[in-house]
Automatic annotation (TrEMBL):
<keyword id="KW-0998">Cell outer membrane</keyword>
<keyword id="KW-0675">Receptor</keyword>
<dbReference type="Pfam" id="PF14905">
    <property type="entry name" value="OMP_b-brl_3"/>
</dbReference>
<feature type="domain" description="Outer membrane protein beta-barrel">
    <location>
        <begin position="2"/>
        <end position="161"/>
    </location>
</feature>
<keyword id="KW-0472">Membrane</keyword>
<protein>
    <submittedName>
        <fullName>TonB-dependent receptor</fullName>
    </submittedName>
</protein>
<dbReference type="InterPro" id="IPR036942">
    <property type="entry name" value="Beta-barrel_TonB_sf"/>
</dbReference>
<dbReference type="InterPro" id="IPR041700">
    <property type="entry name" value="OMP_b-brl_3"/>
</dbReference>
Length: 161
C-alpha cells in the first residue's frame, strides 16, 4: 500500500540544549529539555507491505520518506537574568523504515523480531545521526486465549544512545 500524507502539529515538542552557566572547573553546564514550539509540518510518502511466505511466518515492513518543517521561537532566562530568544526554524528531509518478522513456534509460542531505522536528520541545533534499533519478543497465550505472557527485549544492541 502506498500513501501520501500531510500532517500539521501545533505545540510540537522538541528537545533543545541550553548552556546554563559553568561548573567549578569552568566547564559549561548544558541542559537538555523538551520545549513546545509553535508548529511542525510533515509531509511524505509511505509504503507498506505484508507477506506471508508460510502459514507459520508473517513479514511486514514499511518505508517512510518525509520532509519535516519546524517553526518556532523559545525564550528563556539565563543564569545572569538575561532574557534570551532562540529561533528553532528548521527544514529537513529524512526517512524511516521497519521490518517485522513473526514466527509461530510449536506449543503456541510466537517469536517476533523487529528492526527499525530512522535516517539521519538536521535539527535547528545540529544533526542527529541515523538510529538503528532491534527488538525481540516472545509471547504465549494462556488460559484459553484470555491472557498473554510476553517477554520483550528492547534495543538488543543498545544502539539508540
Amino acid at each position: 500500500m502506498l500513501r501520501l500524507y500531510y500532517n500539521r502539529t501545533t505545540d510540537a515538542t522538541q528537545f533543545i540544549r541550553i548552556v546554563d552557566g559553568v561548573n567549578e572547573e569552568g566547564i559549561p553546564i548544558t541542559i537538555s529539555s523538551p520545549i513546545n514550539l509553535n508548529t511542525e509540518y510533515r509531509y511524505g510518502l509511505e509504503f507498506n507491505v505484508n507477506y506471508n511466505p508460510f502459514k507459520w511466518w508473517r513479514l511486514n515492513g514499511n518505508i517512510n520518506l518525509f520532509q519535516e518543517q519546524t517553526r518556532g521561537d523559545y525564550t528563556y532566562t539565563d543564569t545572569e537574568g538575561n532574557s534570551i530568544t532562540q529561533n528553532f526554524d528548521n527544514d529537513t528531509f529524512t526517512w524511516s523504515s521497519r521490518v517485522a518478522s513473526t514466527v509461530n513456534l510449536p506449543g503456541g509460542l510466537d517469536w517476533q523480531t523487529t528492526f527499525m531505522y530512522r535516517g539521519p536528520r538536521n535539527t535547528a541545533q545540529g544533526k542527529i545521526l541515523g538510529e538503528p534499533n532491534l527488538n525481540l519478543a516472545f509471547s504465549k497465550d494462556i488460559w484459553k486465549d484470555k491472557a498473554t505472557i510476553a517477554l520483550n527485549v528492547q534495543d538488543v544492541f543498545n544502539s539508540r544512545k
